[in-house]
Design brief:
This protein is α/β, with parallel strands linked by helices. It has 13 helices and ten strands.
């Protein structure tokens, strides 16, 4: 059995997908690379086939009708055979030395862990000093641990798709479902499985380079505002998928609450940034849905500082929300 399956979702990625794939190949036979061509209309399909032919037994090219990023991830998961599973977006890349170190560690476990966590870097175009998302302040290093042994993560410091390697069987069993033709489903990917995670391991190494810089990129602020309906859809799907307040493990519950809070904040702040009355109505409708579906969660969210800023209706209140958002972006550089 392969130790690791890496799915590379590709849609019209001919200009940069080689860099992503080449960053995995040094791992050799330990890894299977699943290149999912999501109905591309450029040369993506041909490049995928080229790699499969050149690296038989390592690379598999999968061609499918266009279904969006989440559908491509689910397609890769359905074809994966490795003990562990992770995603590498086609415009990002791995540090291959760290990848090989991770694989050696994955092979060393007597009992598989559910979640293997590594650091990632926001590789933002034009920025000399890159922001690294690391977890050394909160997670025990170089040993298996459980939720009870975690310290609190800072606001904005979350385990994202770029830092998560899951045990594949757990991912299949947790009920994960990513909707088609929807952006921002990576939030579901790292939210839904968490309540099934028991054993974790953190390696304080920067594995993933998360490229930020294309004007059409889904995390660009203007693009996110244009796609606010999809952001809010994912927000609602998170609400439906997990009853946060009912999660029995305290540390896991606190983490999931914090993650849901920040995603709800993003949905709300985007509505404020858009300055469009119809988007503010959508924001209010989202908060009303939370109140109806989970009153306990709503009360906690609404009476917190973040919730108060996000639900602001006055010009002054919304102005403060914008300032806080842009300060956070300046520090982290997340879009």
């Amino acid at each position: 059995m392969k130790i690791l399956s890496v799915t590379v979702p590709c849609y019209n990625s001919e200009a940069y997908m080689r860099h992503a794939i080449d960053s995995i190949l040094p791992a050799g036979e330990d890894v299977e690379i699943l290149i999912v061509d999501d109905g591309s209309t450029d040369g993506t399909a041909g490049i995928a086939d080229e790699y499969e032919k050149k690296y038989p037994g390592i690379v598999q090219a999968i061609h499918k009708e266009n279904g969006g990023h989440g559908d491509a991830v689910m397609c890769g998961l359905s074809h994966a055979t490795g003990l562990y599973f992770r995603v590498l977006d086609s415009d990002d890349w791995f540090d291959n030395e760290v990848l090989q170190k991770m694989i050696r560690q994955l092979r060393s476990f007597e009992e598989p862990v559910d979640l293997f966590i590594t650091d990632f870097v926001y590789d933002k175009t034009g920025v000399t000093r890159k922001h690294v998302m690391q977890y050394a302040n909160a997670l025990p290093e170089d040993r298996v641990f459980t939720w009870e042994e975690m310290h609190n993560l800072h606001t904005g410091q979350y385990i994202l798709m770029h830092s998560a390697t899951y045990r594949r069987e757990m991912l299949l069993e947790c009920g994960l479902s990513l909707p088609k033709h929807t952006f921002y489903v990576d939030n579901l990917y790292v939210y839904v499985p968490m309540r099934f995670v028991r054993r974790m391991y953190y390696m304080h190494e920067t594995l993933y380079h998360y490229y930020i810089g294309r004007e059409d990129q889904s995390v660009h602020e203007n693009v996110m505002i244009q796609r606010i309906d999809q952001q809010m859809l994912v927000n609602r799907l998170m609400l439906e998928a997990v009853d946060v307040m009912a999660v029995s493990e305290e540390h896991c519950r606190k983490y999931l609450y914090s993650y849901f809070e920040i995603i709800t904040a993003i949905s709300s702040i985007l509505a404020i940034l858009s300055e469009k009355p119809e988007n503010l109505e959508k924001r209010d409708a989202l908060w009303e849905t939370i109140r109806e579906k989970n009153p306990e969660l709503y009360q906690k969210l609404a009476h917190g500082l973040i919730g108060s800023l996000c639900r602001a209706r006055s010009r002054a209140g919304m102005g403060i929300s914008r300032i806080v958002y842009h300060l956070a972006d300046k520090v982290v550089g997340f879009n």
